[in-house]
Amino acid sequence: MLLNLSIQNVALIERLDITFSNGFHVLTGETGAGKSIIIDAVNFVLGERASRELIKSGAQKASVQAVFSLPDYPALLDRLDALGIEPEENELLLSREFNISGKSTCRINGMLVNLSSLKSVSDLLVDIHGQHEHQSLLQPEQHISYLDDFNFEQIKPLRERTQVIYKQMQELQKQLLSGFTSEQERVRRMDLLKYQIQEIEAAQLTSGEEEDLDAELQILSNAQQILTSLEGSYDYLHGDEGGLLQNLNGALRLLEGIQAYHADYAQVYNSMQEAYYSLEDAGFTLRSLKSDFEFQPERLNEVEERLGVIQTLKRKYGNSIDEILAFLSRAQEEHDNLLFSETRREKLQAQLNEYEDDYFKAAKNLTNTRKSLALELSKALTLQLNDLGMKSAQFEVRFEKLSAPSPDGMDQVEFLLSTNVGEPVKPLQKVASGGELSRIMLAFKTLHIGNIPTVIFDEIDTGISGHTATVVGQKMLQIAKNHQVLCVTHLAQIAAMANTHYLVKKTEEAGKTTSSVLLLDMDGRIAEIAHIMGATENDTRATEHAKELLLRAKEA
């Protein structure tokens, strides 16, 4: 059960510590005092979605800690073991922070965990009934979940079996259509692939071709400059009037006569001789390049057009020729797969037929089990509704068959209710009032709680009053015999039933608004219950009525 709740910088709450015990607890207070903030804080630490609006104005982060006593609950212990979390002194500490940048940090007993792990543990510790949760009873599509949850352990393997076969059917149907939703879509894809393949194949691309063409384009685009430079360079080396080689040869003849006189002269001579031979070789190369160079304007046009084709294909199929060719290979493979043989199609269809047979068998087993559970649920829920003052209530579950398979079987489920003797059962949304919906939801919660140690009801008293409120309070008190119950309420009859009563107050001081929680003693409870009933100051009749409610509750 929940032992302690520590809240910091959540909405109007700057800092708040609440200690809980076993039994039935209520939180009361004026509208807007902060009761829902406390429930929001609990939801937050249990792993529900959070937003920056949760953080108190001016604070950098919101944080909540919840300490639970560890119940002897195998499913919970197995979950903790799977996460590698060791309980400490038979207690479990859940904590969560949320900063203004949107980062959430979750811990269990100090160990960092992700949000889904936190929620997987908290789901086994607390069951929360939200303010508007009973409205889901007005949505027939939600009814099948309520039915399955009535005995989920029995339904789970049958539903999982149905889901597995359904997934296999879907996969085979995809293969039959090659991943497409219709034959028309498959044909359109084949036409597109055929066009792409033909376009690329027509270009007859080769790897490295673009680089070679770019190099050739550089030469062809600068042909005049290249030819002028080759001719001019050759003339500088072999000019008739004092070319570089001729002048260098004259210098060599002069040095040759003195090289024997000193090593330095010989070194200079040798260096100039090597330079002469290198320049002579360069001259031969220049002559060859010059004579071989031929400018063809039509070849320039061909190269530019070819590069244009490549560029067009690159825009469509890849950033290089290698990527385009890889795209071609994939397109050819996909096209071939789409043209698979009729034999393979027949094989897949036969396999699909087998899966469909298996699916309908599994779905039938699921339906039969659900119908059996529906009878049990109707009896159990009717008894609960009788306890809640709906003495003439008749509850039934209607089944209709879906027109097509679904992951969860072939069942469409709707709850039917009659609240008056002699009246036929009708769809819930047509006959149930707000107060009746609250009681029906309470009845479902009573049946669904199971081993979960803590149950929180956030304003389940919507639409009820008078004797019905007393009956609802008694039902919560009954639940509190085996579970810890926390309830936010506006009704004196329910507040009077509690073992522990907290008052949530909002105060304004120094330009700041804060919410606080006060544990009420008997005098405080009398005053608050009288206040809930609308008592004014010194209203003795309301005070006596409050005392009477508390006395009746004690007797109950």
Topology of helices and strands:
Blueprint: E1 2-10, E2 13-19, E3 24-28, H1 35-46, E4 61-69, H2 74-83, E5 91-99, E6 104-108, E7 111-113, H3 115-122, E8 126-129, H4 140-150, H5 152-176, H6 183-203, H7 209-221, H8 223-238, H9 244-256, H10 263-292, H11 297-317, H12 321-338, H13 342-387, E9 394-406, E10 409-418, E11 426-427, H14 428-431, H15 434-448, E12 454-458, H16 466-479, E13 484-488, H17 492-497, E14 500-509, E15 512-519, H18 522-532, H19 540-555
Parallel strand pairs: 3-13, 3-14, 8-12, 12-13
Antiparallel strand pairs: 1-2, 1-4, 4-5, 5-6, 6-7, 9-10, 10-11, 14-15
Helix pairs in contact: 5-13, 6-12, 7-11, 8-10, 9-10, 11-12, 13-15, 15-16, 18-19
Overview of the structural elements:
This protein has 19 helices and 15 strands. The longest helix has 46 residues, at 342-387. It has helices at residues 35-46, 74-83, 115-122, 140-150, 152-176, 183-203, 209-221, 223-238, 244-256, 263-292, 297-317, 321-338, 342-387, 428-431, 434-448, 466-479, 492-497, 522-532, 540-555, and strands at 2-10, 13-19, 24-28, 61-69, 91-99, 104-108, 111-113, 126-129, 394-406, 409-418, 426-427, 454-458, 484-488, 500-509, 512-519. The model has no long low-confidence stretch (mean pLDDT 89). A hairpin with a 2-residue loop joins strand 9 and strand 10 (409-418). The radius of gyration is 43 Å and the shape is elongated. The chain has 556 residues and is α/β, with parallel strands linked by helices. The two termini are 23 Å apart. The chain has a six-stranded antiparallel β-sheet with strand order 2-1-4-5-6-7, covered by helices on one side. It has a six-stranded mixed β-sheet with strand order 8-12-13-3-14-15, sandwiched between helices.
